[in-house]
Design brief:
The structure holds 2 protein chains of 2 kinds.
Chain A (H helix, E strand, L loop, with lengths): L2 H26 L3 E3 L10 H9 L4 E7 L1 H4 L3 H20 L4 E7 L5 H8 L4 E2 L9 E9 L2 E5 L10 H13 L4 E7 L5 E2 L7 E2 L2 H9 E5 L13 E5 L6 H12 L3 E5 L5 H5 L13 H6 L2 E2 L2 E5 L3 E8 L2 E13 L18 E4 L4 E2 L6 E8 L4 E5 L9 H6 L9 E8 L10 E5 L7 H4 E2 L2 E2 L3 H12 L6 H4 L9 H37 L4 H69 L4
Parallel strand pairs in A: 2-3, 7-10, 7-11, 11-12, 12-22
Antiparallel strand pairs in A: 2-5, 4-5, 5-6, 8-9, 13-18, 14-20, 15-16, 16-17, 19-21, 21-22, 23-24
Helix pairs in contact in A: 7-13, 15-16
Chain B lengths: L1 H14 L5 H20 L11 H4 L2 H23 L1 H7 L4 H21 L2 H10 L4 H28 L3 H17 L3 H10 L3 H8 L2 H7 L3 E3 H26 L4
Classes of the chains: A alpha+beta, B mainly alpha.
Chain lengths: ~575, ~250
């Protein structure tokens, strides 16, 4: 064979291979299979249902700066994922959804169009690189909606965001929600127009619905309200109570969030005096039996930063707790799929009404290791250590939220319904969001509740479709157990230390003789030892995690390779012996 | 014919364990992979029952280890002259190539299997997505296969194992680096949309998708084509060797 023939034989197939790779990339795009258990890369059944229910044609213009995105692998990769999922939407729609992919280059007509439509470019701060566009515009008839920028940080919500945009285009009208709230951290009342949402949950509600402000002195309710959301309101006048009573009696729906001690309001210097802790006679009319006590939950306690002996530690604080899915009423449709649970802060609890005329359905429960305290005493339990010292747990679960259908004499087709939640703090961003990432399903819970109460079920399942956080449960329980032990021991040691310090002070006053000096030295030595013990306890958690790490390294990185070498050694030795035996030298 | 392939595979596989090199190789791979995942990848600190911290470094770890395995496949025969004996045997070229290739791939497989205790430990500590973990191991084997065919082909043309290792490292790195922004920008400077073209050949994006559970058909086609082409190159090189051109 001649050399140049061989070269041809190599370069021709090489060109063919490259051509096939390019062709498969452009023809197959992102088609493939999803092996993840959460099926994050496959369209959900409910999405397919939404697509098949779409009657009006939808046009999606997907703007992506292919060339510029090569500067940023993360954006490029995410851009491909967005493109792939949009293609899945289009192919599942049987032609109802038309996808147009637009490659945006700098200073091109496409860039002008993207800017005109309000899309936002992604640029590193201070970067002189080309702007990267990664957004979409959804059009149907005269309606238009857009996702200005697909954020890789919220990739878990990608499918939901796209489905929501499509649904919003299909809707004949948006839901109208009346907001009655005295909490300016949640929503700011605007006497001349729509209220200004402040909390993320309020913003999300405003994105999907029309919000109407019910001011402090509202004298009538706007017509065609789909729902009223009552969040720790100002005191209601008799006439206002009548209006609300009439509204529910006529088949209206309401979400009520009331709290005997709102941490967020206290933090915002609102104090308790600016809002009411009960709804007066409305509670009786609607079958709401609030407790005035605050509930703490040890099993679901959330970690908080606590200053203990001048050191900043992370400790579980039962005043702030998570209600996990196993404490949901499993028959409640709109709670299904909220896998992260719901976080609460110093909530109250609900009692079952004695009156049989109410259909009372508890939906959220505390764990069976809880404790009740008077709402006035909450400030005494701000330190997790204090809570641990005075813990007197009860083993009966408490009701944190319930659906109540008051029975009325009106024979309307639509029955009134009230969702009561014994907390308002859970609406605050800090309770469920960590740098934009949702660590609990508080927002989804409220959005699902609004959909449920207003009879719109299309986005239930999809909202909850996000990556399940698969924690190292063993390490978590190890941490929690160690922290509980530490809290207990710290309490004892602190007391001992205080006694010793007291004794030192008393002895110091007794004069400066040799015996006193000797006793003082002993006590000082004791104090130092106790402090050292406290220090060791704090280091205990870090040590227990390091121990797990060390065991993992020892087993997987050291013992396994050593076993491999040993096995080889045994076989090698055996073979050598056999070899020697064959040669007659053994 | 099959038995000839099997006999060669067995002979090549055994040759890795005739001295401690094979066992040391696997042990070192396991040691560094696990250590890097736990210490640099912060597997425990992330508090997520997943092997992502392990897999994310694999393209680079395998890039260092697999050429070390592949460099000797032909170079040793070239150096000792046993290549002439092999070529004179009544065995087909493709059997020779596949026998050596699968024997080395088996070593890679054993090395990956030796990391399974880490997978078991993760499952003990939390609830891992085992399908993603399995997909990750398959992805590692696929990327190892690519490095292996590259280093096999390089080792065919040189007697010096160090040179074979370094050139294999370079080629393997090119497959990874072709998706890196710095390389793309450099190629874009040349023109002809070269940056974008090379980005499509890069293995890094596809690998990163695979280890989170997203297997695209185009990525699978790409991996299979590159492995197939690598084996074909070996076949052509062997023919050239037979004819004395290299």
């Amino acid at each position: 064979m001649k050399l140049h023939t061989a070269i041809i034989k190599i370069f021709f197939p090489l060109a063919l291979v490259i051509a096939i790779i390019f062709a498969s990339n452009s023809i197959l795009g992102g088609k493939g299979f999803d092996i993840s258990q959460d099926k994050l890369f496959t369209l959900d059944k409910s999405t397919k249902q939404i697509i098949s229910n779409s009657k009006k044609p939808v046009e999606i213009d997907f703007f992506f700066s292919k060339q510029a995105s090569t500067q940023n692998p993360q954006i490029r990769q995410y851009g491909h994922r967005v493109r792939d999922i949009l293609r899945q939407f289009a192919s599942a729609s049987n032609g109802t959804i038309l996808l147009k992919e637009i490659d945006v280059n700098q200073f091109s007509q496409q860039e002008d169009a993207a800017i005109a439509l309000g899309l936002l470019p992604y640029n590193d701060i201070g970067s002189s690189l080309e702007p990267i566009y990664l957004g979409a515009v959804f059009k149907s008839g005269n309606k238009i909606s857009k996702i200005p920028y697909f954020d890789p940080q919220t990739s878990d919500m990608l499918e939901y965001e796209i489905a929501k945009s499509i649904i919003n285009l299909q809707k004949e009208k948006q839901k109208t929600i009346g907001i009655l709230s005295g909490q300016n951290w949640f929503i700011e009342n605007n006497p001349n127009g729509a209220p200004k949402p402040i909390a993320q949950i309020a913003k999300s509600i405003a994105e999907e619905n029309i919000l109407i402000n019910l001011s402090q002195d509202f004298a009538n309710l706007p017509p065609n309200l789909d729902l009223i959301m009552i969040v720790q309101p100002w005191a209601l006048s008799e006439a206002q109570q009548n209006l609300l009573s009439q509204y529910i009696a006529n088949g209206g729906r309401a979400i009520i969030c009331l709290d005997p001690y709102s941490n967020i309001s206290v933090d915002n210097d609102l104090g308790n005096k600016h809002y009411i802790q009960n709804l007066g006679r409305l509670e009786k009319e609607w079958g709401i039996v609030f407790s005035n006590e605050v509930l703490m939950d040890k099993k679901g306690a959330l970690p908080v930063h606590a200053n203990i002996n001048g050191r900043l530690n992370i400790m579980p604080q039962p005043l702030f707790f998570n209600v996990p899915p196993q404490n949901f009423n499993e028959k409640t449709e709109f709670l299904k799929g909220l896998k992260l649970g719901i976080n609460f802060a110093s909530p109250s609890y609900l009692n079952v009404p004695d009156d049989q005329k109410f259909q009372f359905t508890p939906i959220l429960f505390s764990s069976n290791d809880n404790m009740r305290i008077e709402s006035q005493k909450v400030s005494q339990y701000e330190s997790p250590q204090e809570v641990a010292n005075f813990w007197e747990g009860e083993d009966k679960q408490k009701i944190i939220a319930a659906l109540i259908k008051p029975q009325t004499e009106m024979k309307n087709e639509k029955k009134g319904m009230v969702l009561v939640i014994a907390d308002s703090d859970f609406l605050a961003d800090s309770l469920y969001s960590d740098d934009g990432a949702q660590i609990a399903d508080n927002e989804n819970f409220i959005l699902n509740s609004i959909d449920y109460l207003s009879g719109d079920q299309s986005l239930y399942q999809l909202r909850a479709k996000q990556k399940i956080k698969r924690n190292f449960t063993k390490i978590d329980s190890l941490k929690n157990a160690a922290q509980s032990q530490i809290l207990e021991k710290q309490g004892v040691l602190n007391q001992e230390l205080q006694t010793i310090n007291q004794q030192i002070r008393e002895l110091s006053l007794q004069g400066d003789n040799a015996e006193t000096q000797n006793q003082l030295n002993i006590l000082r030595q004791n104090a130092l030892e106790k402090r050292a013990e406290l220090k060791n306890l704090n280091e205990g958690i870090a040590n227990s995690i390091n121990k797990v790490k060390f065991i993992l390294i020892a087993i997987c990185a050291i013992i396994v390779p050593l076993i491999l070498l040993l096995v080889w050694g045994i076989f090698y030795n055996k073979r050598q012996k056999i070899g020697l035996m064959i040669n007659g030298k053994f | 014919m099959k038995s000839q392939l099997y006999t060669l595979l067995k002979r090549e596989f055994k040759s890795y364990f005739q001295n401690p090199i094979g066992a040391i190789y696997i042990s070192l791979y396991v040691f560094f992979s696990v250590l890097i995942a736990i210490q640099i990848g912060q597997l425990i600190e992330f508090n997520e029952a997943s092997l992502y911290s392990f897999f994310e470094f694999q393209p680079y770890i395998l890039l260092l280890f697999v050429p070390a395995l592949g460099m000797r496949i032909w170079s040793e025969d070239n150096k000792s002259g046993t290549i002439d004996v092999l070529l004179s045997l009544p065995i087909k070229d493709y059997q020779l190539i596949l026998g050596k290739y699968f024997a080395s791939l088996l070593i890679c497989l054993i090395a990956l299997i030796a990391c399974i205790p880490l997978w078991i430990s993760i499952n003990f500590l939390g609830k891992a997505d085992n399908f993603i973990a399995l997909g990750g191991f398959i992805s590692c084997l696929m990327i190892a296969s690519i490095y292996l065919v590259i280093s096999m082909a390089i080792s065919m043309v040189t007697k010096n194992q160090i040179i074979a290792y370094l050139i294999s490292l370079l080629f393997g790195f090119l497959f990874l680096a072709s998706g890196m922004p710095i390389v793309i920008n450099m190629l874009d400077g040349i023109g002809f949309n070269l940056g974008n073209l090379f980005a499509q050949i890069s293995l890094l994006d596809d690998f990163e998708n695979m280890i989170i559970g997203q297997f695209s058909y185009s990525a699978i086609i790409k991996f299979i084509l590159i492995i197939g082409f690598g084996l074909y190159i070996n076949f052509e090189f062997l023919k050239l060797k037979r004819w004395g051109h290299i």
